[in-house]
Amino acid sequence: MTLNIGQRIDGRYGELSPQEQRAADFILDHMSDLAVYNASELARLSGVSKATVSRLFRRLGFQDSAEVREHARSLRNLGSPLGGPGASAGTPSRLAAHAEAEQDNLRRLLVTLEDGRLDAAARLVRSAQNVVIVGLRNSYPLALHLRQQLVQARDHVRLAPLPGQSLGEELAGLGPRDVVVLMGFRRRVSGFGDIVAAIRSREVPLVLIADSSARKYSDQATHWLECPVDSVSAFDSYATAMSLMNLLATGAMGAQVRESRTRIAAITSVYEDLDELEAPW
């Protein structure tokens, strides 16, 4: 396995000179910006010479700053966390950049939904006999949240696989009258393509929700909802993805308003019988 630049620094930190350690510390604290810095900028910002930065890159197995920038871009595209424990996430400039990135993600999502694909996906989810929501790794919290929202609007919604269980038994028995909502945000499991193929081979309608790295699977989906997760911080941001869960569930609820309201009323009655929720006053 090829080590990323942060892992390479961690593995050789004790061998570096004090000046090289100073440059390495700056890199670890500003990994999210590494894709745009050249050697001269890194030297100036970290307070060392350009020769020191170049020597550090060679120690870490890179030819030059151009290769380092390309390496950083590839890490960002793969969803690898970029940033170090010293990164200043709460400064005003960082907060402003974070807010702008979040707004840009949301704007990009809404543009892609203008062609009606969200409404079509919501109608499919609402009319299906069974809805199975699949989310592994980073996608699991989103899948769990969508299930919680959809179950307010309709019956026969389940999450798969359950913790510690496998996926095969959840897909067996599904057919054209059902739907699978599959989440595939980056850093997916290695068998993700097999999951897509298994769903389609059974002629089960598929709503695929993921970032652009899953676009290669989009032609196998009944509906493809691309959701950006780009971030200026160390980790991908799923704020826009959570907004999409809200929109999809709301659309499914609105597709059959009377039935949804009847179910919500029934759920509320059971809440009261079980005294499950805190009073709002």
UniProtKB/TrEMBL annotation:
One protein family per Pfam: SIS
One Gene Ontology term from the biological process aspect of the record: carbohydrate derivative metabolic process
Signal sequence region: none
HTH rpiR-type domain location: 3-79
Annotated spans, Disordered: 76-98
GO molecular function annotations of the record: carbohydrate derivative binding; DNA binding; DNA-binding transcription factor activity
PROSITE patterns reported in the protein's UniProt record: HTH_RPIR (PS51071)
InterPro entries given in the database record: Homeodomain-like_sf, HTH_RpiR, RpiR-like, SIS_dom, SIS_dom_sf, WH-like_DNA-bd_sf
Descriptive protein name: MurR/RpiR family transcriptional regulator
